[in-house]
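re: that complex we talked abt at group meeting.

here r the seqs, copy pasted straight from the sheet so there may be weird spacing, ignore it
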Amino acid sequence: MRSDESPAVLLSSVTRNFGPVRAVDRITLTIPRGQTVALLGPNGAGKSTTIGLLLGLLAPDSGRAALFGRDPVQAVRQGLVGAMPQEGGLIGRVTVRELLSFVAGTYPAPLPLDRVLRLAQITQLRDRRVDRLSGGQAQRVRFATAVVGDPDLVVLDEPTAALDVTARREFWDGMRDLAGQGKTILFSTHYLDEADERSDRVIVVGRGRVIADGTSDEIKRVVALTTVSVTVTGETAWLSALPGVRHLDIRGDRAHLRSADPDATVMALAQAGAVRNLEVTPADLEDAFVALTTEDAPIAEETM
Amino acid sequence: MLGYIRFELIRTARDGGYVVFGLIMPVVMYLVFTDLGLAPGDEHDAAIYTMVSMAAYGGLGAAFNNGSGIAEDRAAGWLRRLRLTPLTPAQVIAGKVVTGAVGVVPGIAAVLLTGALVNHVTLTPGRWLAIVVLLWAGTIPFSLLGLGNGYRLTGQSAAMANLMTMLVLSIVGGLWVPVSGFPSWLRALAEWTPSNGYASLSWHVAFGAAPGAREIAMLTVWLVVFGLYAMYGYRRAGRTG
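got the structure back, here u go
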């Protein structure tokens, strides 16, 4: 494969242990150029380790990582990569402008500073000292350091983890402009809605493995099951065979049907004359997601 | 890499610890200590002797402060962040070493200028040049010791270790009070310290003698020891991130 056709990110059966803990367990994934990908998983799922491996910060115990068909460290040296680690990376006693100018100067063809300041919405902060910013401001500056070199691949590790709702929205406003420029973007998050709204593709990671990989609609269909509840009497086993139903849970005289297609489930219940005290509850995304990544979820395999 | 050096120099210039220990203290102490008349010889000789002592003290202050900066960088995740820029680790280390080497200049220069302008020290141009070079180059072992501490220890403890080492080496090495005023046992100890060897080179030259072979040999040994220590610290820091 010629290197200019090679994918932006390639991990093949990459494993990494920390002492007795297997943080990343034979992860294989390919990210073509231009895709915006969310790496979704709860804390401790192996997201940061995966990112460390693909950036060349960590060496894999086995398997191989490549960016644009070359060694990750080499790709970073060539200025193809801009990254925002989960923590740290801001240093004291310099202004925002001084910091960004320095980072820009290490890349072969950086973006104009004014444009980066606008992109990250930090134009007003340019002469402020980096060590005197609020959490949200600091995060936007860290984001700016990841993109100022105009890299082809931008990797953001939990970019919004420490931010409140407003700061998160402001952060993503800047990201939208970037995705429009054909960059490959990989970000990790433990917010399902972020993965859903901000990416072309979601890779769900749990306990160091890829659990699911698909478009956000596909992932949502798996992860975000709507609960349809009805009052039932007598035989209930047939309910689990209704269209869309993935889980059946009987509590007293109530049947709780977790459905991937609630419309079809309700229609089928109506045709069977079983609509009694019908209740439809939209998925609690976080709960469903935690369930998916903490149990051996057979439903996940359907998307693999 | 020039960009990195410029960036680090901006940060150094805004560092209070650097300004105090590498610049202000040596100059103020030079002015005070000259008047105390602790140094041997007449007034002019004392002014020369103390000028060299305090320039060396300023060199130590700046060199150790640079090492403390490394620990601060590590704690802030800055070294890790630099690994995600196109800079190579060798460029980062070289940049830090150059920053340290440039950083010791203002303190040394300020003390020497104070000597010439305030205390009316007169030396031949050759001797001025020689002590500038010796005072400057002689900071390298101390920079390495400071970097070793910076790599090996974390934030606050590295800064504290470097400050304590700097003060002990300055005092025991006879930079504050000349070793001629020490009790004999302490004087014997002092003559083995790198700080005493470092200043002795310039003391000799300033008074027209050649740098002693013993001082050169001793400083070379310390250079190797501290260089190994810095490498050990760097490797250890690399393993722990």
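couple things i noticed - Residues 296-304 of chain A have pLDDT under 50 and may be disordered. The radius of gyration of chain A is 22 Å.
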